[in-house]
Amino acid sequence: MRLKSSLIPTRPQWWPTGLLKMEADKIRQTFLDFFAQRKHRVVPSAPLVTEDPSVLLTTAGMQPFKKYFLGETSPFGPRVTSCQKCFRTSDIEQVGDESHLTFLEMLGNFSFGDYFKEAAATWALELLSESYGLPLERLRFTYFKGEGSLPADLEIKEIWQKLGIDSSVILPYGRADNFWGPTGRSGPCGPTTEIHYDLTGQPCSRGDQCQPGCGCGRFVEVWNLVFNQYYQDESGNLSDLKQVGIDTGMGLERLALAVQGVNSIFETDLFQPMIERFDPGRKNYHRQPAPYRILVDHLRGLVFLASEGIEPSNVDRGYVLRRIVRRLIETVEELGIEPEKISLSLEQLEEQYSSVYPELKGSAARAEKVLNQEKERLSRAVKKGLAQLAGPGRQISGQEAFKLYSTYGLSPQELKKQGYQFDQVELERAIEAHKEVSRRGAEKKFGGHGLKEGSASPGADSIKKLHTATHLLQAALREVLGSGVHQKGSDINAERLRFDFSFGRALTEAELAAVNRRVNQMIQSGLSVKKSRMSLEEAKAKGALIIEGQTYPAEVDVYAIINADGSICSQEVCAGPHVENTQELGCFNIVKEQSSSAGIRRIKAVLKDD
User: Fold this and answer.
1) Residue 408 in contact with residue 381, Cβ under 8 Å?
2) Where are the beta strands (DSSP E) in 385-537?
3) CA–CA dist 172, 194 (Å, integer)
4) Alpha carbon 208 to chain centroid distance?
5) Which of 52, 17, 53 is nearest to 126 (CA)?
6) What are the chain's domains?
7) H-helix or E-strand containing 399?
8) pTM (predicted TM-score)
9) Which of 398, 404, 456 is nearest to 428 (CA)?
10) Cβ distance 67 to 196 under 8 Å?
11) Which one, out of 81, 252, 271, 549, has a CA that is 20 to 30 A from the CA of 115?
12) What is the Cβ-side half-sphere exposure of residue 348, based on CA atoms within 13 angstroms?
């Protein structure tokens, strides 16, 4: 018995079907056909190179449709569905694990002032359970539990229950998990409901606490349904949208993982045939999967970026391409892959995807040209680094090896390949000493710069203000540039702050102005700063930002900067100290933005009296 999409029965009779071994091409087409049958216009993917000034590349399925959520008439009608090409620059370094990708395909259905929560949830459940055959007992549902002045979205919880979902698997989460948007500093936003798939059926050591977001790998988020019902202005104030809207996103790769019943996106038919070509029988892959995952992801990303005419460079989109190509070259050399296999794989990728994305025709040749040019450039960089070595001998110190590694990017493996010998123990000591210096620097920054609460040392008041300003700066950067921005370190004295963060290019003048303006808006709003003591796990669960690679005690201080409506503006694990109200800071001014190292930008800023 099929669920009638126009009706919502109290207890629908779901098919007791198992997983359907459906290929990715059919999964993609099934999604588009499903919504086409429900009066959605199928819209081709927009380019990766976007006109949206807030991002380098298209990162979400809704990006091409943003203006229609704000009331502009859609030329496609009020119902739209698409499979959008997306590229996530923030995930480059994470590729190699079981779930991260750079390039991905985002399936979505959208409503501009037409249907809302009930229809969206009904169709989502029908598609997943009947069209794809996902067993209901493996699904978990989350909803927005409310935060500050924002009410809980009990409506969607009741809809899921009305559709026959047991309340025990409908779970409440806060704003960090179940409230989307806006992109940039202003725009449409609203509560979300997420559908997660249970990959293993077995809880980890947390037992009943092993739920979506656990981090153990048991659950994967399959679909996110966003209910755009608010507009957020540049000051963070929310108002009701004139028309509500639906924006959903479901990654094809994650959906294929669930539908095909495998343990990793790299075990789906989107990747396994290519991995098999590089490693017949996949024996090496099973022993060491990370380099093969990097290889196939970056090859795919290269083909799609090259198809849009992007060329490697040290700025903007070109820098993104250069990063993945350089990493691709290193991985190819590490695995010993023959150039002929790389050429063949590029051609096969073009053939695999050009029926869906016709603009990919000819991309294999462009991608191979980019790859060969970057090999030559990298070879010159290696020669430049080796030229720094004194004398003709092939024996160098561990300290010299470390300098070549840290300054020129010459890895120990590359040095050995070039015939150089060095003391491995001395190199490892140099690396550890460097890490220790970095750790102490981090402790200086993230531990309050040696200041204690109430310190009367010279410059203490100024340092405390600048310390608080770094929290506002990170919040503003994440608003303007996206949540892929993460703090990588900083230094503060009584005169200025220096803040390092992950970002792959120089900021434009408009972006710098927007960040500067946003920090001053938060200062002028007179936001309160609250300190709370809690366990590290609780802090993470509340969405407090931590520093990757930093060691924290079991109990930590969390400093939250609170908006006037009670919502969180900034929330970080930090040892303090901080001011009690942002109005104490005066006027914030960015004085310089520059590169700190590859993929890391640096901002210097000062505070002045109003």
Assistant:
1) yes
2) 395-396, 421-422, 487-492, 497-502, 528-535
3) 10
4) 28
5) 17
6) 24-203+223-262 (3.30.930.10), 386-452 (no CATH), 460-608 (3.30.980.10)
7) helix 398-408
8) 0.65
9) 398
10) no
11) 252
12) 15
CA proximity to 604, closest of 481, 480, 512, 510: 512
Q: Which two tokens stand for residue 223?
A: 């679909």
Distance CA 298, CA 320 (A): 11
Q: SS3 string of 58-74?
A: CCCCCHHHHHHHCCCCC
Q: 305, 296, 352, 303: which is closest to 328 by C-alpha?
A: 296
d(CA 103, CA 61): 13
Q: Which two tokens stand for residue 491?
A: 């230094």
C-alpha distances (whole Å) from 440 to each of 445, 446, 502 are 9, 10, 20
Q: What is the mean pLDDT of residues 506-522?
A: 93
pLDDT band, residue 385 (cuts 50/70/90): confident
Write the burial class of residue 496 (CB in 10 Å: 0-12 exposed, 13-18 middle, 19+ buried).
middle
Name residues whose C-beta falls within 8 Å of residue 597's C-beta, 6 or more positions apart in sequence: none
pLDDT > 80? residue 492:
yes
pLDDT at residue number 372: 94
Cβ 228 vs Cβ 246: under 8 Å: yes
End-to-end Cα, the chain, rounded Å: 69
Cβ 248 vs Cβ 226: under 8 Å:
yes
- Quote the CA–CA distance of 483 and 274 in Å, as a whole number: 31
pLDDT band at 314 (very low <50, low <70, confident <90, very high): low
Is the pLDDT at 456 greater than 50, yes or no?
no
Integer Cα distance of 353 and 341 in angstroms: 18
Indicate the burial class of 6 (C-beta count within 10 angstroms; 0-12, 13-18, 19 or more): exposed
Q: Is the pLDDT of residue 276 over 90?
A: yes
CA dihedral in degrees (148, 150, 151, 153; nearest 10)? -120
* Residue 11 reports pLDDT greater than 90: no
CA distances for 338 relative to 283, 329, 341, angstroms: 18, 12, 6
Beta strands in 354-473 (DSSP E): 395-396, 421-422
Phi-psi region of 233 (alpha: psi -120 to 50; beta: other; left: phi over 0): beta
Spatial distance between the Cα atoms of 202 and 455, rounded to a whole number of angstroms? 51
For 534, phi and psi rounded to 5 degrees? Answer: -160, 175
Model confidence pLDDT, tens digit, residues 82-102: 999 999 887 787 898 888 899
